[in-house]
Structures are given as C-alpha cells and as structure tokens.
Write a structure and sequence with these properties.
Elements lengths: L6 E4 L5 H8 L7 H16 L3 E8 L2 E12 L11 E10 L8 H15 L4 E3 L7 H6 L30
Parallel strand pairs: 4-5
Antiparallel strand pairs: 1-2, 2-3, 3-4
C-alpha cells in the first residue's frame, strides 16, 4: 500500500485566511469578502462553532472541509439543545482532485460532529459534489428554498382569483 503524500489536521484560527481565500478564489473583487470571511471564521473557530479538516503537503494547503455549527432551537428528538452542522468550505486544488481528499476530509468533519453528539448535518451541493455526498449517506431534499433579501426587495403581488364575485 502506497503512503499518501498529504497529512490531515484540524483547522485552527491561524488557518482562517487560507480557508477564506480558497472559498473566494474564483470570485471577482474577492479581497473584501476574504477579509470579512476571515474575521467571521476566526471568531467561529475561537468559539468552537466551526469544525474544519485540512489536507497539507508540506506547508501547502491542498484541500479542506468544514462545518459551521448552528443553534437550531429545541426539537422533540434531540431535547432542549439542538445544534445543526452545515457542511461548507469543501475544496480541493485542481492538481489534487480525484484522490479521495474531499471524501476523507468531509468524513473527518462528520466523525467530529458525531463525536460531539450532533445528529443533523446539512449542506448545499454543487453538481460536482452531489455524488460524493450521496456516497457519504446524504439524501437530496426537495423542500429547501432560498430568498435573497436585497435592498430593493418587494414581495410579488398575490395572484388574483378569477371567477368569483
């Protein structure tokens, strides 16, 4: 069996800038977003509200996965405290793809979630990532919706009913 050339480690506060840069690597004018996300992630890591797993070759960060821990309110099946993990920041540098890194790192994050007693994990999957998450046991749910509340947001006018007078 051939040894893998990378090592997996937990993300720490010092890793926040690299995670943020990977998250926004392909977005135009990302500098401000990287700065904001770095500060947000540093605070989450300091409060133990983010679980991160990183893969490195030497000092080079080649892949990562994380989960933001969210207070979701009490549920009948989990008792008075219910924390949900939201998988985020799953990335692999192009030269290192198709080697099982995303799966190994996501599994490491899931293992830590389980060790902390979390029972609900959610994510938004890209087309490329969806098969990976399904192999890890995630199910597609069709009841999630999203709305972006912009400054000029106005709800659509209600549909009018016809034929009643």
């Amino acid at each position: 069996m051939q040894a893998v050339p990378w090592r997996i480690c937990a993300a720490g506060v010092a890793d926040a800038p690299a995670i943020a840069a990977a998250r926004y690597h392909s977005q135009p004018e990302a500098d401000a977003a990287i700065g904001h996300y770095t500060r947000w992630l540093q605070a989450k890591l300091q409060r133990d509200e983010y679980i991160g797993a990183l893969a490195r070759v030497g000092d080079e960060l080649i892949a990562g996965a994380g989960a933001t821990l969210l207070d979701w309110g009490p549920r009948s099946d989990t008792g008075p405290v219910h924390t949900v993990a939201r998988i985020t920041n799953v990335f692999t540098l192009e030269a290192w793809r198709r080697r099982g890194l995303a799966r190994a790192l996501t599994q490491a994050v899931l293992d830590e979630c389980r060790a902390r007693g979390l029972v609900h994990v959610m994510l938004a999957a890209t087309d490329m990532g969806q098969p990976l998450y399904q192999r890890l046991g995630f199910d597609c749910k069709r009841n999630e919706m999203a709305l972006r509340l912009t400054a000029d947001y106005a709800p659509p006018a209600p549909a009018t009913s016809r034929g009643s007078s």
